[in-house]
Amino acid sequence: MDSFNSGRAADRFLSPREGQSRGFPVARIVRVAICAVLYGLFYFVQQVTELLAPLVLILGVGWSALPHIVGAIGASAASADPQTRDIVTHVAGTIPRQIVIGAHVVTADSLVADGLLMMAAAALCATLAAVAAREM
Fold first, then answer.
1. What's the number of CA atoms in the CB half-sphere (13 Å) around residue 30?
2. 32 vs 11 pLDDT, higher one
3. Can the keyword Transmembrane be found in this entry's annotation (predicted)?
4. What are the domain boundaries of the chain?
5. Measuring CA to CA, how many Å separate 98 from each of 65, 73, 101, 112, 116?
6. 86-119: per-residue pLDDT in tens?
7. What is the 3-class SS of the chain, one letter each residue?
8. Closest among 87, 61, 60 to 73, alpha carbons compared
9. C or N: which end of the chain has fewer Cβ atoms within 10 Å?
10. Is-contact 92 74, C-beta < 8 A?
């Protein structure tokens, strides 16, 4: 029989080759530990971004659509009652264009962009977690 695997049971119990170490595989354990930590980190970031990205995106789209919705209501209410028109106009004027939190300026467009970037980060972390899992 000239195949690579002879199939004999006695060959399974042969001593390791000269180049192979018989000791404790420290390098392999360190590699698996690093991959496990990276996998956990990537998976955590993926879960957080998958949770927050749709919320941030919907909040940004809603915030950008709100002045248009209130304006449409004001246009239809203008023909009904002047007091109603004044109230709707006042409400439309109180919707902020931006919110400043500390040194950060938050706008509707920035929330939409952040939501899309979070979705991209979730996809990237899912890919990196799969690569780390394969290396383990």
1. 4
2. 32
3. yes
4. 26-135
5. 14, 22, 10, 13, 19
6. 777 788 778 888 999 999 899 999 999 999 999 9
7. CCCCCCCCHHHHHCCCCCCCCCCCCHHHHHHHHHHHHHHHHHHHHHHHHHHHHHHHHHHHHHHHHHHHHHHHHHHHHHCCCHHHHHHHHHHHHHCCCEEEECCEEEEHHHHHHHHHHHHHHHHHHHHHHHHHHHHC
8. 87
9. N
10. yes
State both tokens at 133.
Answer: 């899992």
What is the C-alpha R_g of the chain? 30
Give the tokens for residue 128.
């990196």
Determine the Cα–Cα distance for residues 94 and 61; give it in Å rounded to an integer: 18
Question: What tokens were used for 99?
Answer: 């919110």
